[in-house]
Amino acid sequence: MKIANDVEVLELTMNLGQPSMIHPTLVWDENEVVLVDTGIPGQLKEIQEAMVQAGVAFERLSKVILTHQDFDHIGSLNAILKVTDYSIEVLAHKEDQPYIQGEKPFLKMSPERIKTLLETLPKERAKYFLDPITAKVDRTLNDGEVLPYCGGITVIFTPGHTPGHMSLYLKESKVLIAGDAMVADGGKLLGPREQVTPDMETARKSLEKLTHYDIETVICYHGGVVTEQVNEQIKALIK
Ligand SMILES: [Zn+2]
To answer: What is the distance in A from the centroid of ligand 1 to the CA of 77?
Structure first.
């Protein structure tokens, strides 16, 4: 789905039992093509196809920004890196870096959960979960940092869902890539999902930071695009 001239939401199906949609974002300018989050393991092909549909050659991909460590956000990173000969820069917050790099066990993906997944998934999907999904983070990002490409991408540190969760604000198009700081349902913004947010108090405080930005569009990884009075909706969430 096209959001602005150079912003596209990729709509991928997360098929792990109950199918649902997930929404990585592609942002680009003449020099950089940035993918924000990489789907679940086994989605390289779908990402490549979605980029073609967006009119951006996969070979132009230059950076991956990970909003956080969860497997549905970093799942196909390794496959992307392999097929591009590790020429892509990987960016994330330093608090989630050790999990993404495999130095600490994922906070929400225990070996037991992987075992259950492997037992319930069809073989052709399960195979993608057998390879390690950890990968090297080349550069860590700080709260408030503005990445000088694609019209300026502001890093907003929004911990709670994970210790190193970040959201991104695209200055030019006034788009907020929320990651999992919020979820959406039918055009309504909801707060962070309680069952998968270990530190709800911090996550709620993080939402307050978002009120400092003039946002026209929110992209929730789970629940998709929200455009109706989003500043007001966010304010209502923190009351
Ligand atoms: Zn997620």
So the answer is: 14
Q: 46-71: per-residue pLDDT in tens? A: 999 999 999 999 999 999 999 999 99
Distance 72 CA to ligand 1 centre (A): 5
Here the tokens at position 78 are 């390794």
pLDDT of residue 16: 80
Phi-psi region of 210 (alpha: psi -120 to 50; beta: other; left: phi over 0): alpha
Supply the pLDDT for residue 130.
80
Give distance in angstroms: CA of 221 to centre of ligand 1: 6
Residue type, 188: K
Residues with CB under 5 A from ligand 1 (ion): 70, 72, 180
Tens digits of residue pLDDT in 124-175: 888 888 888 899 999 999 999 999 999 999 999 999 999 999 999 999 999 9
DSSP the chain: -EEETTEEE--EEE-SSS-EEE--EEEE-SS-EEEE---STT-HHHHHHHHHHHT--GGG--EEE-S-S-HHHHTTHHHHHHHTTT-SEEEEETTTHHHHTTSS--SS--HHHHHHHHHHS-HHHHGGGTS-------EEE-TT-EESSTT-EEEEE-TTSSTT-EEEEETTTTEEEEETSSEEETTEEE---GGG-S-HHHHHHHHHHHTTS--SEEEETTTEEE-SSHHHHHHHHT-
CA distance 76 to 91: 15
Task: Please tell me whether the overall predicted TM-score, pTM, comes out greater than 0.90 for this model.
Answer: yes
